[in-house]
Design a protein that fits this description.
The complex is a heterodimer of chains A (about 260) and B (about 240). By secondary structure, chain A is an alpha/beta fold. Chain A has seven helices and 14 strands. Chain B has helices at about 10-30, 40-45, 65-80, 90-105, 210-220, 230-235, and strands at about 5, 30-35, 50-55, 80-90, 105-110, 115-120, 120-130, 135-140, 145-150, 165, 180-185, 200, 225. The chains are: A alpha/beta (about 260), B alpha/beta (about 240).
Chain lengths: ~260, ~240
């Protein structure tokens, strides 16, 4: 079974700080990594491969820095990488990313399953999976918290807000995963060293003969700032002893009625 | 006249979308339309401010399947001449929004917390970088799909009103996806949306044992304990 895992490079959001004066997120010198939920998707793909054989292709769309970042995926167990890169693909929005992913997948010889994280760490709009499924005319299984392949059937448990859904679909199909599905492995040094030697195919958007409208992006970001926080800044330093004081303060603020 | 079309698989959320549609539709000169696939009563949607309600009793709409619902909504959007489609940003709503947007070649925003219409542009506010920042984004395509978070808007107030019901003759292709079983998630689980008082903890909590103190505080206040995502998903201290 061949699995394509679509991964996105993002700034490591745990390390993004906010510039106090301007409320802007500071992205300079923040290391680039693969979006955390995409690592869950990759882990699941590698586990399926270990069980059923086949191959795992890591596919990504983004700026040239991807060539370095994608090593994480190769070290985790992807057999090869296909990258669509170009300076214009920095911060590519969902519609463009999905269109390029679909074109790149269209050039691949054989695949059975496409996996992605349910959303990206930075923008988290959750659109690329469903968009890609629509473009490739595939059934979509989103928010999978577990999955198994039996014969040619993908069986998955979907996690919705208030319910679980057990679903089945004949392959080929597309699925997105939630973080609960697994614990992504930390590659060993040998795996990291070996990752550098695994095949990487680099495409430019032009190679894909993608027919995109020149009217610009489908979504524009007008501003991206930290919210203004209105905190009272009242500290209770003495632990449980201060509980009555905390309750009193909350009452005085009108936050608690009884 | 163009319209702003709303849909949510949850009736309660649909009425919040109606409120949003009324507010933005008024500013944008768009009529409010609603797609109602479930058991909803069109009259209630009229009282919620809709001028048009699109219904269908197509067999394939009995279960929520995103590719089928996307086809149905694309056809409703065409019938309503909709330029803005508002969807409830639940997990189902989001998977529908992306698929529908692709079908309509539309830009899409999800998890939108508030809407604004300024300088001829509809903008949405949404979290970015895991909530560290908030982005103001706008859709540049002719048709826009916007998924609005639950509770971002109050439900529409009931008004005197009536409108036109159109039962659509939908042309839908089935999906290969089969739903085997559906089960409620922890029926006894806490519903923080219903709580009047919430004591919310984050990673400022030094150790898991300290949760006991938070639980005592919540109990003293007659409230519930809630937590930020890392406390639940990374530390797994709370469900």
């Amino acid at each position: 079974m061949n699995i394509v895992v679509c991964v996105k490079q993002t700034a490591d959001i745990q390390q993004v700080r906010i510039r106090k004066e301007t409320r802007e997120p500071v992205l300079e010198n923040v290391p680039l990594t693969l979006s955390n939920l995409d690592k869950n998707a990759l882990e699941e793909a590698v586990r399926l491969k270990e069980k059923h054989g086949g191959g795992v292709i890591a596919l990504s769309v983004g700026p040239e820095t991807l060539e370095e970042t994608i090593k994480e995926a190769l070290a985790m167990g992807a057999d090869e990488a296909v990258l669509v890169t170009g300076p214009e693909l920095e911060n590519a929005e969902s519609a463009l990313a999905a269109a390029l992913l679909a074109k790149a997948i269209g050039q691949m010889k054989s695949w059975d399953l496409i996996l992605l994280g349910e959303g990206s760490a930075d923008n988290y709009s959750g659109q690329v999976g469903p968009r890609l499924a629509e473009l490739l005319n595939l059934p979509q299984v989103t928010y999978a918290k577990s999955m198994a392949v039996e014969g040619n059937t993908l069986k998955a448990l979907r996690s919705l807000e208030d319910a679980f859904e057990e679903v089945e679909v004949e392959l080929p199909a597309l699925a997105t995963v939630v973080s609960e599905i697994n614990e992504p492995r930390i590659p060993s040094v040998t795996q990291i060293l070996r990752a550098g030697k695994k095949p990487r195919k680099i495409l430019r958007p032009g190679d894909l003969r993608a027919d995109f409208k020149t009217s610009g992006p489908a979504v524009e970001t007008l501003s991206n700032l930290a919210p203004v926080q209105e905190r009272k800044g009242i500290l209770f330093r003495e632990g449980l002893k201060e509980m009555p004081g905390l309750v009193k303060a909350l009452r005085e603020e009108g936050l608690v009625r009884r | 006249m163009g319209s702003i079309l709303i849909f949510s698989e949850r009736d309660g959320l649909a009425f919040e979308l109606l409120h949003a549609a009324q507010e933005m539709g008024g500013k944008m000169g768009l009529e409010v339309a609603a797609a109602v696939w479930g058991t909803g009563d069109p009259q209630e949607y009229f009282r919620g401010g809709a001028a048009k309600v699109f219904t269908s009793d197509h067999e394939l709409l009995k279960n929520f399947e995103p590719s089928v619902y996307a086809q149905a909504l694309a056809q409703a959007a065409a019938a309503a001449e909709a330029s803005v489609i508002l969807i409830g940003s639940t997990r189902r709503g989001k998977e529908l929004a992306g698929r529908l947007a692709q079908k309509l070649n539309a830009g899409c925003l999800t998890d939108v917390k508030s809407l604004d219409f300024k300088d001829g542009r509809l903008t949405g506010l949404r979290n970015s970088f895991g909530g560290a920042a908030e982005a103001v984004q706008t859709v540049a395509t002719e048709v826009q799909v916007i998924a609005i978070l639950p509770r971002a808007f109050e439900p529409a107030e009931a008004v005197e009103g009536t409108g036109v019901v159109t039962n659509l003759d939908l042309d839908l292709a089935p999906s290969r996806l089969k739903l085997v079983r559906r089960s409620e998630k922890d029926p006894g689980a806490a519903d923080i949306a219903a709580a009047e008082v919430l004591v919310c903890v984050g990673k400022g909590l030094a150790k898991q044992e300290d949760l006991k103190m938070i639980e005592e505080l919540a109990a003293a206040l007659g409230g519930m304990v809630a937590c930020t995502k890392p406390v639940a998903t990374d530390l797994k201290w709370l469900p």
